[in-house]
TrEMBL record:
It comes from the Eukaryota. This is GAT domain-containing protein. Signal peptide: none annotated. Residues 14-28, 315-343 have a biased composition (Polar residues). InterPro entries: ENTH_VHS, GAT_dom, GAT_sf. Residues 298-308 have a biased composition (Low complexity). The lineage of its organism: Eukaryota, Fungi, Dikarya, Ascomycota, Pezizomycotina. Residues 201-290 form the GAT domain. Residues 1-28, 174-204, 284-416 are annotated as: Disordered. It comes from Penicillium steckii.
Amino acid sequence: MKRILPKGLMRRPTNGSGASSPDQTDQSPEGILLRELTTFCEVSNNPQSPQQGNEFVHLPIIVESAESSPAAAKEAAVRIRKYLSTPNQTPNHVQYNAIMLLRILTDNPGHTFTKNFDSKFVAAIKELLRHGRDWHVQNYLRQFLSSLESGRSMDEDLQPLLAMWAKEKAKNDRPYPVAFPSNSSPTPPPRPPVHPRNKLPDPGELSARIEEARNSAKLLTQFVQTTPPVEMEGNDLIKEFVDRCQTSSRLIQGYIHCNDPAPDEDTLLTLIEVNDEISVALSGQQRGLLKARKARSSRSPTSSNLNSPSPPSNGATSATLSQPFSSDPPQESQIPDQSTTRLSELPGATMTGARPNTTAQRPNNERYEYNAADFEVQNPFADDFATQDSDNDRRHAQGTTTQGSRVHFQAAEQDR
């Protein structure tokens, strides 16, 4: 008799990597993420394939689905674990793309994805570290684990994974395999094919190249914003997208200047806008790299900064000004009084014959009143005796005049 299995226990169709094929009609975040993730990881490694070079257009949808739904993030972790748990059966380019997606989702959405790193996930990573045969996959995975160890060692979600990585590093001192097996490509996934110069591709391929360039620029900007400065210079994922953005920029600029056939106005405007987006993304990466170098130089000061004395702080300066030491007199007390020096240089009272300065003898609390005699100075070259004689004659003349007028006044009254 024919054995009939319950519908729920029927085996779902699987692909070559052992993962079940996603449902093409499921429009939930989980279904959308599984479709896009499968397409991204399992894209053909054949350069002649029409999908080759377009796999990165699926990354924004994967990230958005994982951010919007924790269940979708869990499905992504489970699917990546299945890709990495069988290193001898899964194609090398699928493992490479799965690790790339693992790095992306670890940064964004982050905790929603990394909280699903259970014991099965850690065991799959350990299996790939021990039995993986592809050099590029091993190198890429080890760089990723090293970056987590240096930059996110305090993350609670990553503690089991980092503990396993520390044990594997201490246990396995020999270098990882350098020989390429028969099913391994000696280079990372190939770049998009370059078309002949001044040749515009067909509309379908042109649309795919434009979409890929936009997504590459968008992802590069996101990676630069979410990557710590200490990891900016050695981040292979950023280097990968910088290379892709530069390649896409050359393609887009070639499409702008091509004349066989020349692009129409709408297409030309779209190409110019995409080229601007790529330029902004590359400029942001360069600014982030400059910021990382400045941060590194600030952590390691030069010898000149170490030898030069540090200037006092504002608090120390204010304290010095407000509370001077009692042992050291103020600087202004050591400087002679300029007013005293100037007065001593003037001619004395005996020399000039002037009256003594009474203002200097007044106490400070007495109100000052102006007296013109205090500022009267006699000419030192004048003849004192001649001056006194002239003064006596003038007073004698004034007295005679006064007496004559008085006598004249009395005579006038007598006549009256």
